[in-house]
# Entry
Amino acid sequence: MKILVTGSSGHLGEALMRTLRPSAHQVVGIDIVASPFTDRVGSIADRAFVRDCMRGVSGVLHAATLHKPHVVTHSRQDFVDTNITGTLNLLEEAAAAHVESFVFTSTTSVYGHALTPPPGEAAVWVTEDTVPIPKNIYGVTKLAAENLCELFRRKLDLPVVVLRTSRFFPEIDDNPAIREVYADANIKANEFLYRRADIEDIVDAHLLALDRAPALGFGRYIISATPPFERADAMALRRDAPAVVAARVPQYHAAYARLGWSMFPTIERVYDNALARRDLGWKPRHAFEALVERLQHTDDFRSALARAIGSKGYHDEVFEDGPFPVD
# Structure
């Protein structure tokens, strides 16, 4: 099978390329930035370039995107050109080439304002049925690209799976108030409870989606570490998250105490990955419980793939007040 990976110089793109290159598949990585994992340098906004790259392709893993950290440094038109027009070019050329599977990497950022519950209310239990309310151009363009994917399934019978991925980037948190209180690894460990996934599990979900797309026709899935909570915990998570975590994963106390870490006092949303586990046969390996087990033996809970890729950053320049300017 010949697989086209877009955004191959990026964090997820490199992870996909590292995983696929040793396999039996023929894989071609494309990106606007040259790298050891990019075979063709060019823009997905260039229709002719996309058409040429699509020759002989059976599967597409579309990870190329402008991200949230680019909101302040790039124009809205840049986001439209890459996230919408680029996706449209890929979909049209994939349909024309009779591609068997198309996987689009979306984001839980499409939910936007829907992720923040009103004061005094329970944490939001986020599923694929939660109605997105994007709060910036990143979320708007990713949701528009999702809808294009669904349109191409309905109109041109292109098998497409949309994966709404939660946080998996290794860069430091953009919220200075959080950074002042918690160590970076502590922040990320806490997030595995409700809004983060390891890159190995993200890659696994993409490869399963590529395989299942023809049978599914179309699907839209949340890809995040399996939370240890139940929906009935939602109100308690908002009021006293440490107590809920202690009840569900009691061994976390000792692991955190050894490192001098602490739990967030409140959790306001939980991503539910049940549909992806059911439909894709996805079995994420890096849930919070597994992370806590690792922390009993090591300070670094990342997977081997996450360690190999490291941190890439999003900009060429360094900003004084964080990893990127906040809108």
Notes: The chain has a mean pLDDT of 94.
